[in-house]
Design goal:
alpha/beta, binds manganese (II) ion
């Protein structure tokens, strides 16, 4: 079985390859094709993978190419993990937004819109090529902003593109852990958009255990989301939000912390990764070790500013590795081998969430089998959550329309309608600022 990874020179590719190395079952991936625009990054990552594979007799063969069409031909699965504009682009997304006093996170608020505007045209081109060159391939989209990008691709690939994220899984696992439940035996009632969802229940043996958590302040304050959002706010909500909702519920504090930080997340990662790829040019560098140390530092500092404003302290040891490669592998296995399972995924809504139309990509528990991902029907969201979901989906639709038409005024509308952008004038200046720094937005006229 052939797996093609787009963004194959990306820093997190060894996580995927590590997960593939654990899979010895029949029907596993035997050939990995890495595609990237940058040959230097490809050779850096290839070195790490070679060290990972050392000693494994059934390690998947790895090849690398900068030719996209060649990479796609004959693929059974395509993982799309690209970063249009690189980490420099991410740092610029943050800087331009923060200068206007609004959030520049890569998936939330103004930063997410800017990143979406330059990523959607590239993702659409990929989707069209897959449809033409590898019509039987399944596409698993990792590229952020994952919900929006998956929706853009689904217009060309239908249900054969599925978006993934590890944050709902991590959230479910943490809640199960504090409740003393086995995450594998629990049904997690989670729904929303990517990075905008809520856990409303956790059912074990037919009983909802979440009220027990919400009723116990000590337990509630003992894990990441309890520390981040505070016990009182979680009890008011009666649900546990995805960690990315911290940017909404504590927006002012998050913006201030990002403005005051020595480096924004994107700028930090830009420097960190530049060091990693530079080091890989030294033939004597221990590739796997350098990669792993860099990874550990990245994970330990994830959402550090948010945790700092909340006084949440260091990350819990058990939360450090997100595990999105595990979600991707579980999804691929379920489809390729009909290993039926349940996963929280980004798929077209159909009739799961009644406030959105059938084609809206949402994040929802799905039953997965050889026919793909089937979203389950969920209870309606409370009004406050439905309001946010509808507002942000409307913004995503404006981003898709702007990418489609190249219309600058539609791009302004996307920014202006976002709940975290507080003025149409700010939206206009954001479009100006972003088009100045991003060559990938030159299409906006
Ligand atoms: C979480 C999110 C991902 C994001 C990742 C890394 O797992 O769900 O969407 O890519 O964190 O974040 P970072 O800030 O390290 O790039
Ligand atoms: Mn994510």
């Amino acid at each position: 079985m052939k797996l093609t990874i787009l963004g194959g020179g990306g820093f997190r590719v060894p996580l995927v390859y590590g997960a593939l190395l654990q899979d010895h079952a029949e029907g596993r991936v035997t050939h990995v094709v890495l595609h990237d625009l940058d040959a230097g990054r490809l050779s850096a990552v290839t070195r790490v993978l070679a060290e990972q594979a050392a000693g494994a007799s059934d390690a998947p063969e790895v090849s690398a190419t900068t030719d996209l069409d060649e990479a796609l031909r004959g693929a059974d699965f395509v993982f799309s993990a690209i970063r249009v504009g690189g980490l420099e682009g991410r740092a610029n997304d943050e800087r331009v937004a923060l200068a206007e006093g609004v959030l520049g996170q890569e998936t939330v608020g103004a930063g997410g819109i800017a990143y979406g505007l330059r990523t959607v045209p590239v993702a659409v081109d990929i989707a069209q090529r897959v449809a033409r060159l590898a019509p039987d391939a399944w596409v698993i989209n990792f590229t952020n902003p994952a919900g929006l990008v998956t929706e853009a691709m689904s217009r060309h690939l239908g249900d054969r593109v599925i978006g993934i994220c590890d944050s709902p899984v991590g959230l479910g696992r943490r809640i199960a852990r504090v409740l003393g439940a086995n995450p594998k035996e629990a049904w997690i009632d989670y729904v929303g958009l990517n990075h905008l969802g809520w856990v409303r229940g956790l059912h074990v043996a037919g009983r909802d255990e979440l009220p027990r958590l919400l009723g116990d302040p000590d337990l509630l304050g003992s894990f990441e989301e309890g520390k981040l959002f505070g016990v009182d706010w979680l009890r008011s909500l009666g649900a546990i939000p995805n960690e990315y909702l911290h940017y909404y519920y504590f927006n002012r504090e998050a913006v201030r912390a990002y403005q005051q930080a020595e480096k924004t997340r994107g700028a930090f990662l830009y420097d960190q990764q530049a060091r990693f790829y530079a080091e890989m040019k030294n033939p004597d560098a221990p590739a796997l070790k350098v990669w792993d140390d860099t990874r550990a530092e990245r994970e330990a500092t994830y959402m550090a500013e948010n945790r700092e404003t909340a006084g949440a302290g260091e990350r819990d040891e058990d939360d450090l590795s997100g595990g999105y490669e595990k979600v991707a592998l579980a999804l691929m296995r379920a489809i390729a081998r009909d290993e039926r399972t349940t996963l929280i995924l980004n798929v077209r809504n159909r009739r799961s969430l009644s406030v959105l139309d059938t084609d809206a990509v949402i994040e929802v528990p799905c039953l997965v089998d050889a026919n793909g991902a089937h979203p389950v029907t969920v209870d309606p969201l409370p009004d406050h959550a439905a309001g946010l979901v509808c507002a942000v989906k409307a913004v995503e639709r404006e981003v898709l329309a702007a990418a489609d038409s190249g219309s600058r005024s539609t791009a302004v509308k996307a920014f202006a309608l976002h709940p975290l952008v507080d003025s149409v004038n700010v939206a206009r200046r954001l479009v100006e600022g972003y088009t100045e720094v991003h060559p990938g937005l030159a299409y906006l006229r």
